[in-house]
Amino acid sequence: MTTFTADATDAPTGKAKRRRSGGGMAIWRAVRGNGKALAGAILLLVFTVAAIFPQLFTSVSQPNNRAYPLSLPPSSAHLLGTTAYGQDIWAQLVWGTRETLVVAVVAGALASVLSVLIGIAAAYLGGIADDLLSLLIDVFLVIPAFPLIIVIAAYANGGNLAVIIGVLVITGWSYGARQLRAQALSLRRRDFLESARVRGENWFYIVVREILPTMVSLIAANFLGAALYAVLTAAGLQFIGLGSPTTVSWGTMLHWAQAGEALQTGQAWWVVAPGLCIALLGAGFALLNYAFDEIANPALRPVRRNRRNRVAQ
Question: Is the pTM of this model over 0.85?
């Protein structure tokens, strides 16, 4: 995991303000100039289009309908064949993108918001509040996450998308909060924050307009990490039967493929296709994270330039 360092100047100069306000352009330049990040962005774009407009990729509107002969091999009519229950595998794969991506984005966003609130509050408030919030972060860090997720999901009868997202948020915020707290602590006594206090700015202005803009890349990286965690963990929960059996997602596809003994009956695509999509979506989040590493850690940029210069010589 990359160690993040503060990317802010000590004085409230115009250059520092432009840097804090130009985070979006810096992110775009980093993505465009980094081959791995660009590949990750393209992967995420393809999955996003499939999730929003599944009709562009398949004419089947009810992927769970058992409307076809059982266990057909791949063909022009059924690109990946049919399941042992008479469902089109390609249609399920396309429509399953939506729920998988919703879990990733919603759980990742909520976990990131919780990380920001608790991590920055602990660093900014200090004192007893910092001690209590740090203790809370440490407790969630040492709890074995996946067994806890299984217990909570099973106790809540699983099957509900909101329950899965809820347990993912509960178990996925603490690592990001620890990183954000450390970053905010390094900024707390910087000159541009002291200047804001001297001007009489309230705490809300200082946090929102001064601290958060310097941490955009770290927050984005935490979101990507939380989204990746949500994709893999939700697929695991659905695979072991804690998801809703009536919904279509890559995890439930794997669950029914295992129940239908897909590998033993020569229906490899029933298993390979959703597994490969989970891997590609995870790779998209991980590759895109390279861009935010480069923004958050300026030391990575001159290293790459020096390497290119040595190669050119």
Answer: no
